[in-house]
Amino acid sequence: MKDEALLAQMDSIIARYPKSRSAIMPLLHLVQASEGFVTPEGVELVAKKLDLATAEVAAVATFYSQYKRRPVGDYHVGVCTNTLCAVMGGDAIFSGLKDHLGIGNDERTSDGKVSLEHIECNAACDYAPVVMVNWEFFDNQTVESAKELVDKLRSGNPPAPTRGPNTLPTWKENSAVLAGISDGRANEGVQAGPASLAGLEIAHERGEA
Amino acid sequence: MTSLKPVLSKHWNETDSFTIAGYQRNGGYEGMKKALALEPDAVIASVKDSGLRGRGGAGFPTGMKWSFIPQGDGKPHYLVVNADESEPGTCKDMPLLLANPHSLVEGMIIASYAIRANHAFVYIRGEVTHVIRRMQQAVADAYAAGYLGKNINGKGYDLDLIVHVGAGAYICGEETALLDSLEGFRGQPRLRPPFPAIAGLYACPTVVNNVESIASVPSIFTHGVEWFQSMGTEKSKGFTLYSLSGHVKRPGQYEAPLGITLRELLDMSGGIREGHTIKFWTPGGSSTPIFTSEHLDVPLDYEGVGAAGSMLGTKALQIFDETTCVVRAVLRWTEFYKHESCGKCTPCREGTWWLVQILKDLENGVGKAEDLDKLLDLCDNILGRSFCALGDGATSPITSSIHYFRDEYLAHLSAGKCPFDPVASTLFVGASA
């Protein structure tokens, strides 16, 4: 994983910050974009780039739940089971997906396509119950719609997110975006979902906007 | 009767609202031009006079926070915007940045100019890829337009804006943990004082503000201080985003002057889902003590909610109807705090662990009545004794739910199990799912 392009991207990320150590988080996202997860080699490379001990980088990598220490699927599925989503159907969706996929929390299907995780509140409560795939929004899910979603992911026909790009990127592709490498897709997708517009629409109906 | 007042959300129904062209068509960056024509201290004075207070939860006056930055100290100053929106129930900043990221960019330019910062950061949670794309693109477009970089708008002022992406840690919404994270460390809170205004990012004077606070700043300069002051209540000025979620007919974002009530919001949005009644709700996320149907007329401003025994918080109105088990709801929130506790201090790290064990037994009907007192005693030893507000927040749902729903806790014990059917509270009850 020491190809020239990757090293050049690392240098450009480090150059954004007044102090190099601040680049540690985007560099770890970039390692995931290259390797799929934070590998020991990735930790060493980040440490070398930032002139840190590997233990210092590993300490950071293990603190944050988005950094994975083993491979996830091409499509990493997160089901919100924080209170509001859980009550409104998130618990049923999560247990339904575990049964349907035959895997548990933080596990991956044998074909390597899909991994499953229960996640905390993802700031989309007005679209509950919420499912994220590669950290793209799939709003207003049911047990059936979520099963259909993962079936499509496994069969290679990933549907578009509700509020996101026109097609669903892979885990590695989206990890690059998180590292700050533009994929040029910011203009795709809706500007706002229906719930985001609820108040504005009512204000118009009432002559208050 | 309070009306809705879309300001930040006014143009979210336009399909290009997130582009620089769409933003400028509706007057975007005019506030920046007016602010940059003033002296920095005059900008701070205007924001102070407007009465704008922090929209991230604490409600600290924004202009006053800016005025704490020492001037002429020879050190770099920094603006850091907290876009780590992760408080359960809170869902306002992400749709704002998805639909209108330039309002934040413009606000950041004004704020940075006021506090004499040449570097500004926005720390966005990492689990929202498309929001991050929109923010990155907005920053790139603002650079291209000459609103960021060197000699902004020909005014001789330089500013670099860096989009920094988190990696899944609620604690990084705590401002000092956020700064540690941004410096490249594990996100753990710092002892205060010194406050960030004196020793923040890289031990330099730093302002940390919430997304909505900063995105509200341009409107003060476009429409004027008096316009802003004309909305809201005596000590809670202006407009804000209320986020309605849960068992309501029409969940979503409702922008209104501060002081609107939940009854008013429910009346205009169609109310609770058909055939059901409200049981409990949060005024501002899971860390704010819960309310019940008794509190529908509490003015949702900083003072009103405080006087009624909770906090305005993030204005995340999570509504639960009578099908919801309050013990299950509180257990799940408590599991969240346990998971997100950073481990730095003992009361929070160990306390949240014990809270979960006891609540699990209670929910499963195998606890004891004395467990309620034990829970309250534990909460008493966490609240005010933890290193940061995460520990305090963890106690809010527990103490408030025992206050209002002690009988429901006890009903679990007499039934030997949870007396609620979880299917009844789902949105797809009655469907084949």
Summary keywords:
heterodimer; A: 209 residues; alpha+beta; Arc Repressor Mutant, subunit A; Glutaredoxin; 2 domains; five-stranded mixed β-sheet; 8 helices; 5 strands; globular; B: 433 residues; alpha/beta; Rossmann fold; Ubiquitin-like (UB roll); de novo design (two linked rop proteins); 3 domains; four-stranded parallel β-sheet; 43% helix; 2Fe-2S (chain A)
Describe this entry's structure for a reader.
The complex is a heterodimer of chains A (209) and B (433). Chain A is of the alpha+beta class. Chain A has 2 domains: 4-63, NADH-quinone oxidoreductase subunit E (Arc Repressor Mutant, subunit A, Orthogonal Bundle), CATH 1.10.10; 75-170, 3-Layer(aba) Sandwich (Glutaredoxin). Chain A has 8 helices and 5 strands; from the N terminus they run ααααβαββββααα. Chain A has a 5-stranded mixed beta sheet. In chain A, α3 packs across α4 and α5 (83-101) crosses α6 (143-154). The longest helix of chain A has 19 residues, at 83-101. With 433 residues, chain B is α/β, with parallel strands linked by helices. Chain B has 3 domains: 18-228, NADH-ubiquinone oxidoreductase 51kDa subunit (Rossmann fold), CATH 3.40.50; 237-319, Roll (Ubiquitin-like (UB roll)); 324-421, de novo design (two linked rop proteins) (Up-down Bundle). Helix content of chain B is 43%, strand content 12%. Chain B has 17 helices and 9 strands. Chain B has a 5-stranded mixed beta sheet with strand order 6-5-9-7-8, with no helix packed on it. A 4-stranded parallel beta sheet of chain B has the order 3-2-1-4, sandwiched between helices. In chain B, α16 (370-382) packs antiparallel against α17 (389-415). The mean pLDDT of chain B is 97. Chain A: GO terms for molecular function: 2 iron, 2 sulfur cluster binding; metal ion binding; NADH dehydrogenase activity. Chain A: Keywords: 2Fe-2S, Iron, Iron-sulfur, Metal-binding. Chain A: Belongs to the complex I 24 kDa subunit family. Chain A: It holds the Pfam family 2Fe-2S_thioredx. Chain A: InterPro entries: NuoE-like (IPR002023), NuoE_dom (IPR042128), NuoE_N (IPR041921), Thioredoxin-like_sf (IPR036249).
